[in-house]
Amino acid sequence: MIQLLFLVLFAEGVAAFLLMVKIGPLRELVMKGLDQVKMGKGPATVKTIAGTMSVILLSNFFSIVKIQNKGAKLGTMTPMDQVLWRTHLLEASLMGFCLFLGFLIDRMHHYLRKLIGIRGNVRASKEEVQRLEKEKLRLKEKWEKASEEIKLLQEEVSKLKEDLNKVKLESEEKDKKIENAEAHVLSLQKQSADLLLEYDRLLEDNQNLQHQIMGHR
After folding, report:
1. Alpha carbons 38 and 46: distance in angstroms, whole number
2. What's the predicted TM-score (pTM) here?
């Protein structure tokens, strides 16, 4: 029994050491082994073994107390009682250390698995951040390109507005020239009509003078 407990304690110590210190792929192997132990009926088996060891530990504790009480009543312990007391004490100590290391290994495995998950999430988050940064740079480049295009379009619109204003001014000047020409034409037409009337009057006066001259003869 004692040799088995030493063997278990040694195995647990090695497992705990490999979990605490990363030596090549040994930590991953221990983690995978513990994962296998916690799958299926493994947890129930481990709990059964731990319960059995706890019961044996309590039994050894009570045996130690009983032997001490017996020795106290007699004033001394017999060599047989001393051997039994030391045996029970050694077994109880080994079982206590085994249970403690088992609990320690279970917690270390649990938190290491959580740590691995957190590292995976952090790695995924970093990759997501890098992807978002690349997307941000790409969008920034698109925005700069769009800004340049908008600036060029605005300059083109400004140029078109200037051309349109020039065309409007030229159109207004042409309209004024047309209006002035029409006014001049109307003035000439009026002058022409006045001249025709004056010509008709002079022609009539000329005819009257000719008739008068012919009358005097």
Report:
1. 9
2. 0.55
